[in-house]
């Protein structure tokens, strides 16, 4: 069975510093995908970044980058130059393909990030 | 750009009552999903649908039923609400999951906060 582990329940970072949110995963499927979502206090789920298991390079999207270490089964999210608006809950999720191609996401428990001014 | 819309946003029920949560998407997505989010547990898949007229069970389907009579709508029903179903419910949708479509994220609604007394 697939499993996602986020070991940091909470993190506190000074504004403008970089922050790394940890995510490790466990799967026997050679083909998988990893997603990061942001959930601000308002509750919505916002897609940030995706990394496929066969992607040769680490994914980047603006201030977000993914430190993908396949051998260690880790997919850490790096936020550069953090901003107050980055304060939120962050979820790592792994894609598992169901029958007929439906995409089941297995979520970690999340990390609550607080950016201090 | 409505995306995924969930109604209602909040609801309080008494044990044994029934209700239906409505999810509507305007992105012409084939796949739709219902998740529940409980404190400290991330999101868990309840039911999903790979197209109009089809539904399937996810990780925690007991006590829920779903229907997908129209491609754009996915309904989640609670026939006899129980306090254990107090949660935040999220609907999501995604396009066809084949080939490069596997890297497409799920798009989430804003959630429905449901309390069962």
Note down, in words, how this protein is organized.
The complex is a heterodimer of chains A (117) and B (117). In chain A, strands 2, 5, 6, 10, 11 and 12 form a six-stranded mixed β-sheet that branches. Helices cover 0% and strands 54% of the residues of chain A. The radius of gyration of chain A is 14 Å and the shape is globular. Chain A has strands at 3-5, 10-14, 19-21, 24-26, 33-39, 46-52, 60-61, 64-69, 74-79, 88-97, 103-107, 111-116. The termini of chain A are far apart. Chain A is mainly beta and 117 residues long. Chain B is mainly beta. Chain B is built from no helices and eleven strands. Chain B has strands at residues 4-7, 10-13, 19-25, 31-37, 43-49, 56-57, 65-67, 73-78, 87-94, 107-108, 112-116. In chain B, the strands form two sheets. In chain B, strands 2, 4, 5, 6, 9, 10 and 11 form a seven-stranded mixed β-sheet that branches. Chain B has a four-stranded antiparallel β-sheet with strand order 1-3-8-7, with no helix packed on it. In chain B, a hairpin with a 5-residue loop joins β7 and β8. Chain B starts with a strand and ends with a strand. The model of chain B has no long low-confidence stretch (mean pLDDT 91). The interface between A and B is medium-sized, with 28 and 31 residues.
Please give the alpha-carbon distance between the first and last residues of chain A: 41 Å
**Approximately how much beta-strand content do the residues of chain B carry?**
over 45%
Number of helices of chain A: 0
**What integer value in Å does the Rg of chain B equal?**
14 Å
H/E element string of chain B? EEEEEEEEEEE
* Unreliable parts of chain A: none
**What would the principal axes of the Cα set say about the shape of chain A?**
globular
Largest interface: A-B, 28 and 31 residues
Percent range for helical residues of chain B? under 10%
Care to give the gist of this entry?
The complex is a heterodimer of chains A (117) and B (117). With 117 residues, chain A is mainly beta.
């Amino acid at each position: 069975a697939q499993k996602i582990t986020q070991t940091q329940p909470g993190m506190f970072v000074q504004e403008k510093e970089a922050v790394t949110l940890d995510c490790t995963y466990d799967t026997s499927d050679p083909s998988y995908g990893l997603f990061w979502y942001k959930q601000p206090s308002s509750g919505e789920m916002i897609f940030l970044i995706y990394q496929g298991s066969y992607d040769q390079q680490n994914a980047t999207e603006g201030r977000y980058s993914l430190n993908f270490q396949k051998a260690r089964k880790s997919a850490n999210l790096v936020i550069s130059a953090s901003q107050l608006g980055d304060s939120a809950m962050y979820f790592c999720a792994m894609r598992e393909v169901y029958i007929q191609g439906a995409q089941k996401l297995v979520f970690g428990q999340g990390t609550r990030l607080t950016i201090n001014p | 750009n409505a995306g995924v819309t969930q109604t209602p946003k909040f609801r309080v029920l008494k044990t044994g009552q029934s209700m239906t949560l409505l999810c509507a998407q305007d992105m012409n997505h084939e796949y739709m999903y219902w998740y529940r989010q409980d404190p400290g547990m991330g999101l868990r898949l309840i039911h999903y649908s790979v197209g109009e007229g089809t539904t399937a069970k996810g990780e925690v389907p007991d006590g829920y039923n779903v229907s997908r009579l129209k491609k754009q709508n996915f309904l989640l029903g609670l026939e006899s609400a129980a306090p254990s179903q107090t949660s935040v419910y999220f609907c999501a949708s995604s396009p066809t999951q084949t080939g490069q479509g596997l890297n497409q994220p799920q798009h989430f609604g804003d959630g429905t906060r449901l309390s069962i007394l």
